[in-house]
Design goal:
The protein is of the alpha/beta class. It has two domains: 4-204, Spore Coat Polysaccharide Biosynthesis Protein SpsA, Chain A, CATH 3.90.550; 209-274, no CATH class. It has nine helices and 14 strands. The two termini are 36 Å apart. This is Galactosyltransferase C-terminal domain-containing protein. One of its GO terms (molecular function) is glycosyltransferase activity.
């Protein structure tokens, strides 16, 4: 069974190495791995020379990362008919690819189940024993078809190359944090695709976050504004509400405009910083 695995990375090279170590132990192994490095010209993966890795370099001159474009570029470089996408933070369980591919059909998009790891010092053994599910995501004991395409999440998904190209991939006008996943999910629904949620586990490596994500204020406002213009609906409302309550933005849920009033100060950033958070 042949399939391509696409990974995008910018920073978090240690996470990438942990991920590749995990992939090496998979029961079912990717035919090829496409690593799209955003502003990572010196990315050296020679320690994994036994793995069929192709590194694609992408230069970008903005602090808002072109994740949508990077995923599209990875898909364009892939040679297999089946495409798997993994967030660089996600270490696949040994059985992940095997379980996912069992449900593979051309009219389906498959999403795995992320579990979240605490900060780990040392080896990455027995991950399931220390990882926890996201409390705000549905948990399934078996594969199910889901009608709510807002649940689509690009952390860990798979679909046919033909279907990916037919829906046009991710909208590259989304830059930085937020928006492209929801838009892609809606594109899949519009195209008549079927969303399947699979109890195939990946383990999300811990990294610090801001709650709310103050470092992504501009990206969230810009992407939410673009989504509204495109779809007539707001997204990331929880973060917009939080920003409004902090006095950072002017926004009304029944309006059509967001305006940044000011940027967070150092005290607000310090208060929002979560060094050991597992997720937002």
């Amino acid at each position: 069974m042949t399939f391509s695995l696409i990974i995008t990375v910018s920073g978090r090279i240690d996470h990438l190495r942990n991920q590749l170590i995990g992939i090496k132990s998979s029961i079912l192994y990717p035919t090829e791995i496409i690593v799209v490095g955003i502003n990572e010209p010196g990315l050296d993966l020679s320690e994994f020379s036994e793995m069929a890795i192709t590194v694609v370099h992408m230069e970008h001159n903005s602090t808002r990362l072109p994740i949508a474009k990077a995923r599209n570029q990875g898909a364009a470089e892939a040679s297999c008919d089946k495409l798997f996408f993994l967030d660089v933070d996600c270490i696949p369980d040994q059985s992940y690819f095997e379980e996912m591919i069992t449900y593979f059909k051309d009219d389906r998009v498959l999403m795995g189940t992320p579990y979240y790891l605490p900060k780990i010092h040392g080896g990455y053994n027995n991950l399931l024993e220390i990882a926890i599910p996201h409390p705000h995501r549905p948990q399934y004991k078996e594969a199910v078809q889901e009608n709510d395409f807002n649940l689509f999440w690009s952390l860990c998904f798979a679909m046919s190359r033909e279907s990916f190209m037919n829906v046009g991939g991710f909208d590259e006008k989304f830059l930085g944090y937020g928006g492209e996943d929801t838009d892609f999910g809606w594109k899949l629904k519009d195209a008549g695709m079927k969303l399947w949620l699979i109890n195939a586990k990946v383990y999300h490596q811990q990294h610090p976050v801001y709650v709310p994500p103050l470092g992504h204020l501009e990206a969230i406002v810009s992407n939410a504004t673009y989504f509204y213009a495109k779809r007539g609906s707001w997204i990331m409302e929880n973060w917009l509400v939080a920003f409004k309550q902090m006095g950072l933005i002017n926004w009304e849920p029944d309006g059509n405009i967001i305006e940044i009033i000011r940027y967070p100060n150092s005290e607000e950033k310090a208060k929002a910083f979560r060094e050991d958070a597992l997720f937002m």
